[in-house]
Amino acid sequence: MSYHSVKLIKRPELEITEDIFNIVTQDIPTPAEGEVLVKLSHLSLDPAMRGWMSADENSYIAPVKLGDTMRASGIGEVVKSNNERFPVGARVMGLMGLTEYAISDGNGLNVIPKELPAEAILSVIALPGITAYHGVFEVLKPEAGQTLIVTAAAGSVGSLVGQMAKNLGLTVVGVAGSDEKCQWLTKELGFDHAINYKDADFVEQLTQATPNGIDLFFENTGGLAQGPIFERMNPHGRIAVCGLIADYQKAEPAPGPSWVGIIKRRLTIQGFTMPDHFHRIPEYGQALGAMLGKGELKYRAHVIEGIENATSGINLLFDGKNTGKLIVKL
User: Fold this and answer.
1) Does the N-terminal or the C-terminal CB of the chain have fewer CB atoms within 10 Å?
2) Cβ(154)–Cβ(172) under 8 Å?
3) Does 286 reside within a domain?
4) Together in a domain, 58 and 145
5) CA dist., res. 282 & res. 288, Å (int)
């Protein structure tokens, strides 16, 4: 029997084009001693994949080697096992790649409950959830009564950040790229304000939504919104820099905020990436599962069908056309 996987065969120059991938057909492998064979059911498409495709060795995680299966998170079932920690029938999650089957020695695999929908796991308990949780609780460290703003607020990470902050008693402002997304943030998720950064009066709306300034800024995008938000930061404010998706497909990134402003406002700015904290996934996953079980976190998923559509589907993230966590169902 055979299966399909997506190989990275070229580095993207700027935009992700389909010619950098090759979908190959291979024989289903047999696990060696200590290994398991996993049949994938759902794959996660994330903005971080753009960085993993680059040739930059000076990053938080090594790039995918040309000819290797493209890195991606996924959920699947163990169908053959030579590893007692992962018996046949176990449902697992991990960085198994854009593939229908994967061999693993168990490192980085986590057993997950069978009763939870795959969409809920990939939207809340997987990378988006642990990223939001770490950024909120470990980097921003919010206090009730503060004002928090999050960019890409309707995305898989931003939407969770805003909900966590609201549950802690903060005033939450979301920035998104369409009126529909803004309405979802306020009407469904309970954000206090949501602003379309494409509006001509974005700066005026931002000022009205933050009369007492901004204490905490969860940055996912860079781009047009960053400068005006930075100018609204309060003294001793904190900024968590999680992503800059507006710059990922540019030859030159946009200039950042003035360091003079950082000094005058005595700001704390911290970039973070989750591979530094993968050892805390069980802890974070338990906390997120509890929030989900209590109904404290809502999500929505954008599901595309078939591994053959994964390569074109990635660009939905960078075009802002996805409505929720982007998932490939196999």
Assistant:
1) N
2) no
3) no
4) no
5) 10
Hey, what long-range contacts does 168-173 have (CB within 8 A, 24 or more apart)?
Answer: 168/142, 168/143, 168/144, 169/144, 169/145, 170/142, 170/143, 170/144, 170/145, 170/146, 170/216, 171/145, 171/146, 171/147, 172/147, 172/148, 173/147, 173/148, 173/149, 173/206, 173/209, 173/210, 173/214
Q: State how many domains the chain has.
A: 2
Q: Which phi and psi angles does 278 have, rounded to 5°?
A: -60, -25
| Residue showing tokens 């920035």 | 175
Per the structure, the complete domain to which residue 210 belongs is given by: 127-275
8 A C-beta contact, residue 240 and residue 258: no
CATH number for position 75: 3.90.180.10
Is residue 270 in some structural domain? yes
The encoded tokens of residue 123 equal 């939207």
Q: Under DSSP, is residue 219 helix (H, G, I), strand (E, B) or coil?
A: strand
Q: Which two tokens stand for residue 259?
A: 């360091």
In a structure prediction context, what are the per-residue pLDDT tens digits for the chain, which is 330 residues long?
Answer: 999 999 999 999 888 899 999 999 999 999 999 999 999 999 999 988 988 998 888 888 889 999 999 999 999 999 999 999 999 999 999 999 999 999 999 998 999 989 999 999 999 999 899 999 999 999 999 999 999 999 999 999 999 999 999 999 999 999 999 999 999 999 999 999 999 999 999 999 999 999 999 999 999 999 999 999 999 999 999 999 999 888 777 778 788 889 999 999 999 999 999 888 888 988 999 999 999 999 999 999 999 999 999 999 998 988 878 888 999 999
Contact 65, 277 (CB under 8 A): no
What is the value of pTM for the model shown? 0.89
